Amino acid sequence: xxxxxxxLLIVSGGIAAYKSLDLVRNLKNAGIAIRCILTPGGAQFxxxxxxxxxxxxxxxxxxxxxxxxxxxxxxxxxxDAGLLVVAPATADIIAxxxxxxxxxxxxxxxxxxxxxxxxxPAMNIxxxxxxxxxxxxxxxxxRGVNVIGPEEGDMACGEYGMGRMSEPDALTNAxxxxxxxxxxxxxxxxCKRNQKLAGKKALVTSGPTxxxxxxxxxxxxxxxxxxxxxxxxxxxQQGADTVMISGPTNLSNPIGVTVHRVGSAVEMFEACKRxxxxxxxxxxxxxxxxxxxxxxxxxxxxxxxVPTLELTENPDILSSLSQSKSNRPRLIVGFAAETGxxxxxxxxxxxxxxxxxxxxNDVSVxxxxxxxxxxxxxxxxxxxxxxxPEMSKESIGQRLADRIADHLNTNHD
Length: 413
Ligand code: CTP
Known about the structure:
alpha/beta, Rossmann fold, single chain, six-stranded parallel sheet, globular, 2 domains, eight-stranded mixed sheet, binds cytidine-5'-triphosphate
């Protein structure tokens, strides 16, 4: 197994450590070799034996006795890996990484490495929200550390909120992407290459919305979220502090992006407002235009009559942010998913919604835009129309992030 495809996993002390066992199994199944370091805190939650059995390798725990375990010191441990992953990453280890401490094996390895690092924070919501943790993370991100999660949900401490570690499947995908990225200079995620959006905040909407009719049924659309997720990932790669408000999708959270998952258009709108002010907004979500006026708490039953749905219009997030009198983000980008005469319709939509750029794409049957890997778009703004060739949604995300950065860096208004 080449070094390029080996993960050095540091398991620190949080209840989410149990998920690292599944992560080890997943990575092995994906053909990625894995070697583990278990911190004293981590050892309170998972055993050396289970990590050793699942990884098929020694587990390293002690900075000073490491040379007794097969002759590998902390420098070699990092040298032998293509990627370092800290999962779970507690508030404590994050603070130590920021401070450059090296008082145990895990922190010594993290300080001694020149390899990409991915951390998966997991902690109580108050610890997550504490200024100290947020400041530490901002510094680590600026140094090029990749961050995935945390997710929102029920917590072991009985509270609800941000702080759950990302699931092993999402971590596995992120690790695979990082390995792909480090093999491809253009998409390398962990490199402090010219981060043109450092210091800027970006807000992205993505995916469809689900508008409930009753507890089991909803109105939805075919959006997969791939384009919005790719844009959020690209903005984060360029150093923007990126928050994505996503409707229901099957996609994992992009690396380095803070994700809030919502269901309906109204929830998406409220979540967006909570994230203002922002410098950049990209509305890539396919927001449902209407919702049921009276969704029922009880399932609607068949009673011989066909029910009549009374609909009401949803708030237009793009329009509302573009026309806000205070706090208007500097650059607001919308999407115009159209069939036939897409550019003309996008021009009309640009004028109506008053955003700065409109990205027109054809979603006619046969284009496979919804759910497909590729997209063909036209960027419409006050200066005219730029036609981009068909390319992957990831490439569109990167090119758009570059265009946004160039625009903001040359127009200092
Ligand atoms: N949009 C939004 N909120 C809505 C509807 C749309 O933020 N309630 C945003 C989308 O994210 C996209 C843009 O507006 O950036 C255009 O969305 P689209 O569905 O193409 O336009 P609609 O406003 O729904 O217009 P129509 O359905 O009449 O084409």
